[in-house]
Amino acid sequence: MKNDKISHIAWALTGAGHFVPECLGAMRPLDGCDVFLSKAAAEVLPMYGLGSGDFPEGARIYHDKAASSPIVARFYSGDYHTLVVAPATSNSVAKFVSGISDTLVTNLFAQAGKCRIPTIVLGCDTAPDMETLAPGGVVKVYPRQIDLDNVDRLRSFDLVEVVETVEELDAAIGRRLACLNTSSS
């Protein structure tokens, strides 16, 4: 049966502060973007002075409040054409590569994969040393080797594109939207 309804981007935010203001900036111009907040994301956003007013106008916002994450069933009904996880903590990436789906965000990732929905992930821990914005200002961080290894493992997943910068994120989303526009013509 053909699905004639319009599908959207599902955008999941984890508890990362790295690139969070920039990710919200990348999200704002998107039409038809639903926002999924992990419990940690809901805690972290106010630390950066961010909240629901920073999401795209008209975005539906979903919080991690149900053990079974029933909202992920929307992938099965064609509500979403793309999943974006940005920013993604090292914890979320580790769960993704280990096949653990025990939170809203990890369930979204698992169901997107099962439904063959392309996924774009902006990992936070992608280089041996990095500067990141913490609530008190810019700090230097040194991701663990396991975090770097997990990002590399995630790159090998089918239909998953791992990006390292907001510019790469914007480009990946642009390519995905262009692909959809080409295929619907």
Say which CATH homologous superfamily is assigned: Flavin prenyltransferase-like
CATH topology (fold) name: Rossmann fold
Radius of gyration: 16 Å
CATH level 1 class label:
Alpha Beta
| DSSP E strands, number | 8
**Secondary structure tally, helices:** 6
Q: How much helical structure, as a percent, in the residues?
A: 25-40%
Distance N terminus to C terminus?
A: 20 Å
Write up this protein.
The protein is α/β, with parallel strands linked by helices. The two termini are 20 Å apart. β1, α1 and β2 form a beta-alpha-beta unit. It has a six-stranded parallel β-sheet with strand order 3-2-1-4-5-8, sandwiched between helices. Strands 6-7 form a two-stranded antiparallel ribbon. It has helices spanning 20-27, 39-47, 90-98, 104-114, 145-155, 166-184, and strands at 8-13, 33-37, 61-63, 80-88, 119-123, 130-134, 137-141, 160-163.
Produce the secondary structure layout.
Elements: E1 8-13, H1 20-27, E2 33-37, H2 39-47, E3 61-63, E4 80-88, H3 90-98, H4 104-114, E5 119-123, E6 130-134, E7 137-141, H5 145-155, E8 160-163, H6 166-184
Parallel strand pairs: 1-2, 1-4, 2-3, 4-5, 5-8
Antiparallel strand pairs: 6-7
